[in-house]
Amino acid sequence: MSNKREALNELLNRKPVNTKIQESVDSVIERDGVTQNKKKATYELDLDLHTELKVFAAKQNKKMVDVVEIAIREYLRNNN
Question: How many domains does the chain divide into?
Fold first, then answer.
C-alpha cells in the first residue's frame, strides 16, 4: 500500500514537462523579383497597439508584417 501511495504522491507532485516543441516554419518568398528567406514568428500584441499598427499600415499601403519588420530592423540598428 505504501508503494502505491508513494507512486501516487510522486505523480501528483511532478511538475509537468513541456515536451511539445513548436515546429519551425521556414519559407522562401519572392517579392518584387527579390527572393527572401522568411521564418514564421507568432507574437501577442496589446489590442490597441494591434489596431494602431493595422491603421498605420493601411494608411501607408503596406502589409502589417512589413511595418513590423521595418520597425524591428530600425530598433535593432539604433540599439546596438
Answer: 1
Q: pLDDT digit string (tens) for 4-56?
A: 777 777 777 776 666 565 556 677 777 778 888 888 889 899 999 999 999 99
Contact 57, 47 (CB under 8 A): no
Cell of 60: 501607408
Can you give the pTM of this predicted structure? 0.60
Structural domain of 56: 2-78
Dist CA 61 CA 54 (whole Å): 10
Q: Which of 51, 53, 75 is nearest to 64 (CA)?
A: 53
